[in-house]
Write a structure and sequence with these properties.
This protein has 403 residues and is an alpha/beta fold. It has two domains: 262 residues, 3-Layer(aba) Sandwich (Rossmann fold), CATH 3.40.50; 96 residues, formyl-coa transferase, domain 3. 38% of the residues lie in helices and 13% in strands. The strands form three sheets. A six-stranded parallel beta sheet has the order 3-2-1-4-5-6, sandwiched between helices. The protein has a three-stranded antiparallel beta sheet with strand order 7-8-9, with helices on one face. It has a two-stranded antiparallel ribbon with strand order 10-11. The chain is elongated. The mean pLDDT is 97.
């Protein structure tokens, strides 16, 4: 192949944790050089996420391996004037600058869009915030659990009836948000192709949470009347529900076209008598008697294991989905076939795989994932490439801007 789409594009990842840096990871997968600009002491705090109580235990720093693969690390103290000046040397040669610092911090550091556009008018400046760049909460710290999951209403909506709010998984809102930021960056680069000038693009965790929950939010905005979501044994529609097999495995039914699928479903169950039952003759009848149908289906599905029910449902074209345990994904044949999990090279652990970004372009092979950088591993190399000589590097070290 002639080359990857983003070959020759340099991205400065001046962010922390997940949503912003993960957008840079996607760009790196398509050939961009991604330079991770980190605080001199401690680096990106994402390096330490794995140590938070409750995170799965592993000998590998798996969050860092996932989102910092193939990146180069440039460690600078941006609070030191010389550190900022060194960064500007790198900015002058970059194509994309990605940050998730709040607006007031960017202003204090003099690293706003206006500051950097004066150095590099062709720069695409990508800003990620928790709650947007205007309004009373513009400078409020935001993580996906509060700005994406809780603020959007999803945390409340998915809870069990009368139960406490539902917890989210680490990065659950960050990674979808990173795809939105990636799209914004690509729009900025497309505009630059047309005009020759860079652009500022932005998104927020809050906006992406609202977009993720937009069907229900739109219902609210349209004045819809909401009904209480009952427990699964009293589901409003037994054919859009989840069930447990004899071996304890759960799966979900999603029969949105139930008039079409009802009789084939009954055949798949080995219960051809069900369509003749007056309680279940029409969709309206089935909805009116949904708890009774749930009870029947619970008993039927409890008769066999998942390995038996899956092919029976597939053979009759019934829409369903396995409710996977995370350990089931290790041997998921469809994920293997689609390249969702790929080998991670250079980490000293043969067989270790990582999750590939979810975008594909026909005819484009992505960059094979390789190990994430050590803090400051490429500092001298990158600064020399930006035009700083040995004497300049000595002055930076004397000022405490680099190590």
């Amino acid at each position: 192949m002639a080359g990857r789409i983003l070959d020759g594009i340099t991205v400065l990842d001046v962010g922390s944790f997940i949503a912003g840096p993960a957008a840079a990871t996607i760009m790196g997968d398509f050939g961009a050089e991604v330079i991770k600009v980190e605080p001199l002491r401690g680096g990106d705090p994402y390096r330490d996420l794995v140590r938070i109580p409750g995170m799965p235990l592993s000998e590998h720093n798996y969050p860092w391996l996932l989102d910092s693969r193939n990146k180069k690390s440039l460690a600078l103290d941006l609070k030191v004037p010389q550190g900022r000046e060194a960064l500007l040397k790198v900015v002058a040669r970059a194509d994309v600058y990605l940050t998730n610092f709040p607006p007031e911090v960017l202003g204090r550091l003099r690293l706003t869009w206006e500051d950097l556009a004066a150095v590099n008018p062709r720069l695409v400046y990508a800003s990620l915030t928790g709650y947007g760049e205007v309004g009373e909460e513009a400078n409020k710290p935001g993580f996906d659990v509060n700005a994406w999951w809780a603020r959007s209403g999803m945390m409340d909506l998915v809870r069990q009836v009368n139960g406490p709010p539902a917890s989210s998984m680490p990065g659950m809102g960050d990674h979808p948000t990173s795809v939105a930021l990636f799209g914004a960056i690509m729009l900025g680069l497309f505009q630059r192709e047309r005009t020759g000038r860079g652009a500022k693009v932005s998104t927020s965790l809050m906006a992406n949470g609202a977009w993720a929950n937009s069907v229900i939010i739109q219902a609210m905005l349209a004045g819809a009347t909401f009904v209480e979501r009952p427990p699964r044994d009293r589901a409003l529609n037994a054919l859009i529900n989840f069930y447990q097999c004899r071996d304890g495995r759960w799966f979900s039914l999603t029969m949105l076209r139930e008039e079409k699928d009802w009789e084939p479903f009954a055949q798949a169950l080995g219960r051809p008598d069900l369509p003749a039952d007056a309680r279940f003759a029409t969709a309206a009848d089935r909805h009116a008697h949904s708890p009774a149908l749930v009870a029947i289906l619970d008993a039927v599905f409890a008769e066999r294991d998942w390995a038996q029910w899956r092919p029976a449902l597939e053979a009759h074209g019934i829409p369903f989905g396995a409710i996977n345990r995370v350990e089931d994904l290790r041997d998921d044949e469809q994920m293997a076939a689609t390249g969702t999990f790929v080998p991670l090279e250079g980490v000293g652990a043969p067989g270790l795989r990582t999750v590939m970004s979810p975008i594909e372009v026909e005819g484009q092979d992505k960059v094979p994932p390789a190990r994430a950088p050590q803090l400051g591993e490429h500092t001298e190399e990158l600064l020399r490439r930006a035009g700083l000589d040995a004497a300049a590097l000595r002055r930076l070290r004397a000022a405490g801007a680099i190590e």
